[in-house]
Amino acid sequence: MGVFAKDTGGMLSDTFTTELMRVPGFKVVERSQLKKILGEQDLSLTELLAKKSAQDIGHLLGVDAVVMGTVGDVFAGTTFIPGSAVCHFSYSVRMVDTQTGIVLIGTAVSRQVGGDMDVTKQIFASVREVVDKIIEKRK
Q1: 65 C-beta neighbours (distance < 10 Å), count
Q2: 105 and which of 14, 95, 125, 130 could share a cystine (Cβ 3.0–4.6 Å)?
Q3: CA 134 – CA 106 distance, rounded (Å)
């Protein structure tokens, strides 16, 4: 029997926000502030991402790049072996230059964790790896 984690997207978003703050030269706009700015423009975040390009988002927010992503499957459950657990999670992330629309960094993460490994630690470690790639790209 397994369980799907419902707020994994929020956890990933928060983790990326925290980790991106350690990137030299990055200024992170909190999602709540982004929603406030969009509200002033009479737009929702969903509408903006569906209708606007990265260039439009960059112009509206006054930023050089945006980091966007999608959370795929997140599943935690037990295997047929008594006492054995398994978890699978996946997500994709891309950083897009708002002047050119070019994807500067794009990566997809898909991991299966079994046994007594801490799933939350594995998710955090995978986010840190992605942010480390962003730091390397900026050097």
Answers
A1: 19
A2: 95
A3: 10
The torsion angles phi and psi of 79, rounded to 5 degrees, stand at -100, -175
| Torsion angles phi and psi, residue 72, rounded to 5 | -90, -135
Of 74, 77, 63, 72, the residue nearest 23 (C-alpha): 63
In Å, how far from its chain's centre is CA 12? Answer: 5
Query: 66 forms bridges with which residues in the sheet?
Result: 96
25-79: per-residue pLDDT in tens? 888 877 777 777 777 777 666 666 655 667 777 777 788 888 888 888 766 666 5
Token output for 79: 């295997």
User: Which residue reads 């991106």 in tokens?
Assistant: 20
**Residues contacting residue 15 through CB under 8 Å, at least 6 positions apart:** 123, 124, 127
Task: Name the one residue in this structure whose structure tokens are 């969903």.
Answer: 46
Q: 128: pLDDT confidence band, cut at 50, 70 and 90? A: very high
96 in Cβ contact with 83 (< 8 Å)? no
Q: Which CATH class is domain 2-138?
A: alpha beta
> Of all helices (H) and strands (E), which one includes residue 116?
none
